[in-house]
Prior knowledge:
The complex is a heterodimer of chains A (301) and B (264).
Chain A: E1 4-13, E2 16-26, E3 31-36, H1 42-50, E4 57-62, E5 65-66, E6 74-77, H2 89-100, H3 106-119, H4 135-148, E7 153-157, H5 165-182, E8 185-190, H6 193-199, E9 202-206, E10 218-219, H7 228-231, H8 235-253, E11 256-264, E12 292-300
Parallel strand pairs in A: 3-8, 3-9, 6-7, 7-8
Antiparallel strand pairs in A: 1-2, 1-4, 4-5, 9-10, 11-12
Helix pairs in contact in A: 2-3, 2-4, 3-4
Chain B: H1 5-8, H2 10-31, H3 40-52, E1 57-59, E2 62-63, H4 65-96, H5 98-111, H6 116-126, H7 134-160, H8 164-172, H9 177-215, H10 220-229, H11 233-262
Antiparallel strand pairs in B: 1-2
Helix pairs in contact in B: 3-11, 4-5, 4-7, 4-9, 6-7, 7-9, 9-10, 9-11, 10-11
Amino acid sequence: MAYLELKNVSKSFGGVPVLKDINLAVEKGEFVAIVGFSGAGKTTLISLIAGLLQPDAGTVKLNDLEITEPGPDRGIVFQNYSLLPWLSVFENILLAVDQVNPNWSAAKKAEHVGKYIAMVNLTPARDKRPHELSGGMRQRVSVARALAMNPQILLLDEPLSALDALTRATLQDEVSRIWSDDKKTVLMITNDPDEGIYLADRIVPLTAGPGATLGPSFPVEIPRARDRKTINHDPHFKQLRRDVISFMLDSKQHRHTTIKKKLVLPDIEPEDLNIPRTMTAWRKTPIRRHEIKAETVEVDA
Amino acid sequence: MNNNPLKKIDWLLLPLIGFAVGVGLWHLVSQTVSKDLPSPAKTWAESREYVMKPFEKRGEMDQGILRFTWYSLILVAKGYAIALIIGTPVGFFLGLSKSFTKTFDPIIQILRPVSPLAWLPLGLVLFLGAGKQASELGALFTIAVCAMWPTVLNTAVGVRAIPQDYLNVAKVLKLSRTKTLFKVLIPATLPYMFTGFRLSLGIAWLVIVAAEMLTGRPGVGGFLWQEYNALNYSHIILCILTIGVVGFILDRLMSVVERRFKTA
């Protein structure tokens, strides 16, 4: 029995299918990365696991219990940090700790929060407000908040995609370090296959939407601790990267369809002045001989 | 240009020029178009006593100008407090519940543009049974009713404008209803609320004059109306200037408070 299990999960918005027949099983302590195109429904997928959305069909189970609502047993790091701007770093994390451990003494809560602030190297910024922090620092607060709740599973929704490349690399190392210390179950969503391969035990590509579904798993058999500098030359890394990317691109190419569309061509033909006009039957548009043409075109769906 | 010494004090110089132009026009009008309008010099001469001894009380309707202002401010403070205490929760309900909005928005939109002059008689009727207190209660009612709307509407807009992210945080952390209210909804709405509070205060101060004029209560507005009836026109101008200056100061104070919350 897998720890996190999605069975035939489908979700559509306003009649448009976003996710179709999603099946995923994540074992305890595993780090799984889901790689997908932007707009493919990655955030929808994580919202379903978080319980912020309910699936139209299928079930989402964590630890054999069906997920019906959001809860602090799933720590989420949102793409846009989602820190409360009127609270300091400390208070933002304390709010979460307070929620999970309401019976702790104030001193114990403060110590716990301090420990996680230190874990993400933000002790000097402890009393700063989010708007005083850089994007990378905010995201670290968000990670610390999720970890401090001591969740059963950590859900990362494109946590690093809003950051510049260098900050991103630093934070990837940090996520990797925290994961190897904590051995939490992690489900990360990303649009960067390299990031997924560098961090995860297993990569699962999400096909292009609409009606996106998960492809086959690609296990990452590169031993930890992985080295950013040498990993680029690792033949397994290169092969994996090729496989994942080509799978994703193929999934996109198979989506060619044929539709019929009426095309109105630009006015390049002179008006036909031979047609008689009367004031009573005034035509608003000029009369041309071949105004409307039908054409069949091939488009990307 | 930057070396021009005048440039450095233009923050003081230019407003002074503005005032001088205003006073000049006033003088001109009093000399030409309307001989009944007291000139600036005459206004000052007749108002001197009220300005120089601002807290003196010579009779019920003959007191220093700051003493009158004080009476007015106290009444405004009471009415304004009522407006905020009622208006803020109503605004929250409007922002949180679509059906509440659908139910009460039409009536709010209809009552909102009604002038304070129209509310006051109703206020007096409402508290007829209160005897001597009727005029004060009626005035408070008018101030509260008129000053409430900006707070109501701005709070509602603020609640509706709370980013989904913050609400998601509350959901994911499973915050209780009270905690969500005090830790997320209220802090996120505060900047909007304070904009409403500031507009409400401006209106409350506008209404006070009308309320005092009609009820004859001692205060800046009551004094103004009494002096009009007593043909002391220069005191009308004194009252207008006082009302303007006090209103300006109140607005500045509120905008300082407002800015304090904007950065949050």
